[in-house]
């Protein structure tokens, strides 16, 4: 008897509750027939999307709830490739289910291997199946095993299977949100680098306690969504369910805003419950998605706000509009030209402001920072943003001023936010106040001072030339001509050598020296005020030899184009005769070497050291992956890491840098860098990759943790002479405290100490392939990903 009940779902025909026989078909038309389940709860067939034309919409081959007034799609076959009117789905006489367009071109067919179906059936569970044989209850394929964005009762999400949210409320194509039952047994939510399918590094939701023994995720008939072990044990309950399956339809859908929601709908019209969701994960998508990369829950320059039903709404700041009005998730763009800041009108003799700041209460963009500094007053903070063309928005909180550049990312409304966010917008041509436009008091808008205009024809020529798109190969043209063009494209200032002599007082105060030149302290005139700078003069001997001319060209053309808060900024250059000079912004706190090894009685602050480590790592990520021309620095060491007035680390000295062409992963070059920080591959005559910088950073990271140089002859114990070996020995024996001396702050933060030491050991692995990328290093340092146990860094050498 029970066997007959199991067969019952298959004993139905199309439109009359029987099996779908071979040769049966459905056609996409205005009024469609469907293959319906025995109870009539579910139907398989074409659902019209949009207006039904091929360009503006089409037909979705789908499974839907057939008795709910608003037909709800729970599965679809061709979500990324809608079928035009007249398309056909057919269960062929050969036992294959095929969707074709009117011309007969195949749009979709399920993967059944070599097996053919004897018939198909729409089951009362919502599973559309291709049955293997007429007398055997089994299937060669079912919609439950190939889910889209919804789970139904009795359906399970197995390992290495995922739900992908639809793009919008009316667009069923795949979006950037993924809900994955991973191979490692962890259940996670990711965003992808849309329109690519690869997942971001960060998961914005994971099962509680980072459970990694999960085998499947299953929705039972009582509406409980459980993470199960292989033996069926419940490891975690995501949703607690609702009413009885006799009275309610249940489903769990991964919605277009990246939120997993549990829904229930009454089966009888006289019941009071509605289709509103009963539970959500995560509860606040606006704050769940974050991190240093990506646009957040909404697109760039927009911000996320939750409605009363916990649904995301994406909004634009004042004077910004949606990039695509039909798709709010694409973010916002200004309806003015931000470049006006760089090119103020010469007719501004009436001292009218070009830009103003508009207050946005409780709106925060957590990322996009490029500078942060103490500010005694809010007015001074605002003025700093208005005077800086890079600044798109500024926040002022607890006497701290934070500048943010465009595009703004991870914007959201935060009721508990302290301080203010003020966004820079173009003042309209009208001289009336902008306050009525934003319903805000006039004291939240500050005028931008008239930008300083060039005082000579030469300066004006520079601004004109800076916009020219031409650039010659520096190795195939005159050095002076190439440097001028490269520098002008970056709006750098050109100095005469006599100005450099005057600025340095005859090159008297030496800040430091290296293999290619000497750095002096200087003062230049910057818009009628004096400005401290660091002036690097290349040795004339090296210039005569010629190879440092190329290094000089590299620094001018590349550093002039880089723009990151953790890199030193190039102010200008001198290229006169045999004189090659670089002018950098002055770093008032000297180098990291001075900070760490300056000989003070106490160790530098532990938390400052960790912040420096994170800053250097982020700077290297920018060099390796984010700037226009990827750069291998080749000489990362404490002497080349400078500290500004707020102790923010800035990577300096690109004279030894190696440029990478587009899509290039390795390059060849002569040995460069400094003994003690060089990666082993420099000595093996093999191409180098950005992993050489990873190795050098690992050494610097250990020095930051331990506050000592990598190699010290004067230590009491011989085993402590080489820091790398001593650190791994302490780590492997569980004696990391020995590295810290009397550093009480570090001793009270041993979890972070262990994480940083483990990261450094991964970075200094002899085998470059074992070293993480700098982006992975940043994630490990910040605790965004777990740091696994590192092997002995010398194991590769011992193996060969």
Automatic annotation (TrEMBL):
It is found in: Membrane. Residues 27-143 form the Bulb-type lectin domain. Residues 341-429 form the Apple domain. This is Receptor-like serine/threonine-protein kinase. One of its GO terms (cellular component) is membrane. SMART domains: B_lectin (SM00108), S_TKc (SM00220). Residues 1-18 form the signal peptide. It catalyses: L-threonyl-[protein] + ATP = O-phospho-L-threonyl-[protein] + ADP + H(+); L-seryl-[protein] + ATP = O-phospho-L-seryl-[protein] + ADP + H(+). GO terms for molecular function: ATP binding; carbohydrate binding; protein serine/threonine kinase activity. Keywords: ATP-binding, Disulfide bond, EGF-like domain, Glycoprotein, Kinase, Lectin, Membrane, Nucleotide-binding, Receptor, Serine/threonine-protein kinase, Signal, Transferase, Transmembrane, Transmembrane helix. Its EC number is 2.7.11.1. It is a single-pass type I membrane protein. ATP binds at residue 536. It comes from the Eukaryota. Pfam families: B_lectin, Pkinase. Residues 505-797 form the Protein kinase domain. It is an enzyme of class 2 (transferase).
